Amino acid sequence: MDLAVKTKNSQSHSWSAQFGTHVLQLKKTPATNITAIGRAMTQLAVSMKDVLREMKELKLASSDPADETSEEASAKDEIEPHDSENSFAGDLGDDLSPEEMKISQLASGVVSETLLVIKELIRSITGLLKQENSDNSSNSVDSLERLLKLCQEIGVQVDELGACLYPPQEVPAMKAASEKISSLIDEIQLEVENLKGSSEAYFQACSGLRNSLRQLESELDRSSTADIVPKMQNLVVDN
């Protein structure tokens, strides 16, 4: 299931002043391959931020629908007409169980930490702009192009993760996306080390992301086990 259409207005917002500073530096630099890569990463980060915003809009199901009286429901209908399109959009994400909501929150944490990693990559690219005329400029561009490709692959997995959160949640697909992100982060870290552009802040960001991924995968494993046990019990009863 696709996520909701992203709004253009959200693209103008930065999630931190520090991130905005590095983006501004990239935009003030003459157009080069490295700058183009930096801008592409910036747009990727904006897209991830939109996914994160949509994740945070997911809601927990009402514990007792009967609490709303018929009069309250009627008044609500008068205020908010339910055409088919609005009703469909309103229903999305409104009926998460407590277990699903926990998974949603952990997935949001993964995307948030991924954004921090991207921010640190942009910081590294900003530093490399000063070295564009050096002898290893070509090698730097090649590494950055590989970094961009890896980051774009992470973006695909982030989209997949977000789409799978809508009920019924697709646990196997979320596990696959989480494992893929973990693998891609390992590859990204190797490229960053080759560029000699890593920093303590970057390592901390990667560490935070790996921790969030472990928490999500642990919860997904518990969810899978919880689903399997009743099915096995049903098989025993049927036999």
Write the layout of secondary structure elements.
Layout: H1 17-28, H2 33-56, H3 70-79, H4 84-91, H5 98-128, H6 137-163, H7 171-195, H8 200-238
Helix pairs in contact: 1-5, 2-5, 2-6, 5-6, 5-8, 6-7, 7-8
| CATH class membership | Mainly Alpha
* Helix/strand structural class: mainly alpha
Largest sheet: none
Report the C-alpha radius of gyration, rounded.
22 Å
Q: Any idea how many domains?
A: 1
CATH homologous superfamily identity: I/LWEQ domain
- Beta-strand percentage range: under 5%
Domain Cyclin-D1-binding protein 1-like N-terminal: 24-59
Domain Cyclin-D1-binding protein 1-like C-terminal: 88-189
Pfam families: GCIP_C (PF20936), GCIP_N (PF13324)
Family: Belongs to the CCNDBP1 family.
